[in-house]
Amino acid sequence: MRILITNDDGINAPGLEVLAEIAAEIAGPDGEVWTVAPAFEQSGVGHCISYTHPMMIAKLAPRRYAAEGSPADCVLAGIYDVLQGAKPDLVLSGVNRGNNSGENVLYSGTIGGAMEAALQGIPAIALSQFMGRETDELDDPFEAARIHGPALVRKLLDRGLWDGEDYRLFYNINFPPCATKAVKGTKVAAQGFRRYSAFSLEPHISPSGRKFLWIKGGPQHGPTLPGTDVTVNVEGYISVTPLRADLTAHDVLAELEARLA
């Protein structure tokens, strides 16, 4: 099996090392793991692509490249430059330092990398490690992802739903903010919404008198609706969420058509 891995935390991020271990175990001794990751952190860029300017790519080691672009850019670079159009069998994105549950899905470059792979017709999985007080006390905050990741990815490949639709399925995995021994299991969960939290903005004045605006995140650990991803994560479960890039609100199509007729 040939696996392409990327992330949004950057080529030197510890979570990418964890993902490389997971990918190597999945690929097996006769497989290949190729890394194309952002040269610098790209958190929060979503599914951004560098459509209006070129990017540089550098080979750092055999099968290891850094690109000055987003995770989606890196997937495109991996497919069409590094692998010369030979699509990999699987794309893994992560392991993100921090959760990509709830509305974070919409902002996440980790998700964006997996989404681009799905749009290219490649099976794709995004992996993220929810962080919190318990993980802060661990020698390895990625412990849950490192230990549980290989078996869960393999189970998804063997038993998950993989379709050939235009907007094909891809998967979002979030590991809970706890030690491996405290993980209670895995639950399939819908994407939640943090009604108590949202991104905001805080202005600061620099020593030169110029105003700079900092984007601020909100609280992460309050529950979302029962059974949704944030809730199951804070309860100690790994969440698996099937996603599609189709943003159509299918549930209101018929009613809207009737109203506008």
UniProtKB/TrEMBL annotation:
Cofactor(s) demanded: a divalent metal cation
EC numbers, comma separated: 3.1.3.5
Keywords (A to Z) from UniProt: Cytoplasm, Hydrolase, Metal-binding, Nucleotide-binding
Binding-site positions, a divalent metal cation: D8, D9, S43, N96
Subcellular location(s) per record: Cytoplasm
Protein name (Swiss-Prot/TrEMBL): 5'-nucleotidase SurE
Family matches, as NCBIfam families: PRK00346.1-4, PRK13931.1, surE
EC top class named in words: hydrolase
One GO cellular component, as annotated: cytoplasm
Principal location listed in the UniProt entry: cytoplasm
Secretion signal span: none
Reaction(s) this enzyme catalyzes, per UniProt: a ribonucleoside 5'-phosphate + H2O = a ribonucleoside + phosphate
Limits of the Survival protein SurE-like phosphatase/nucleotidase domain: 3-197
Origin species: Fuscibacter oryzae
Family in the record: Belongs to the SurE nucleotidase family.
The keyword Cytoplasm appears for this protein: yes
Function: Nucleotidase that shows phosphatase activity on nucleoside 5'-monophosphates.
GO molecular-function terms, A-Z: 5'-nucleotidase activity; metal ion binding; nucleotide binding
Bound cofactor: record note: Binds 1 divalent metal cation per subunit.
